[in-house]
Amino acid sequence: MRVFLTGATGFIGTALVPELINAGHQVLGLSRSDAGARALLAAGAEVHRGDIEDLESLRSGAAEADGVIHTAFNHDFSKFVENCEADRKAIEAMGDVLVGSDRPLIITSGTGMGNAAPGQPATEDHFDPNNPNPRRASELAGASVAERGVNLSVVRLPQVHDQFKQGLITYLVAVAREKGVSAYVGEGLNRWPAVPLLDAARLYRLALEKASAGARYHAVAEEGVTARAMAESIGRGLKIPVVSKSAEEAGAHFGWLGMFVGYDMPASSALTQERLGWHPTGPGLISDMDAMQY
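RE: above sequence
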């Protein structure tokens, strides 16, 4: 299958390109820079120049492919709402050229979209269109293009990790380095789900190959790692004290991260594992964090 991949030079994309090629697929990777184009060529992929705000480049890339995997997202969280709106437009643009075909479009969302009740793990079959998280825009756009006849499915991500990056935790490390303490909120019992990078890449490939229209998949290896465990790992790595902050102190201490750090958002992948035969095998989040070169 010839696969148009957005985010091809990003954290997940750089693992997904070889995953797809080694499985016999051709990759047409989106790149906005010469350096990115060179990296894609070196990895054995073709290059499609453009970016996620150039909707015409997205349409033309999707038109050239047998399937599309959309992993690109602007992770400037100071502009989170705007970036979610840009993602909506990107999904709708690629959907435009896939209407009426059976070519799969795999989009990306967050596991938090599957939270139905406080304290309960998010599940694949739940989605609340009124969820206060702005990332709902991605899944609403997906539902819109699916209604127009696009073979669309969703991969929801938790904290994706290796020994170099760990999603939002990468920003927690930066805050801890700046403040001289590694902090959590309250008792630190709130949980974040996680998945090793290579396992996440394999899930995207399986979702593409076994695409089931309208399906949602959770790339979750660990249902929930506590905030305190993460803070303690950062403290060990940076050799700094580990402290608790009150909910009122969180905003001042963590900055924009303050809106996330106290959330309890466990997530399950039981249905994903059953439906796709995907079983994560990589190291745990704390193991990767402890192995980082701080």
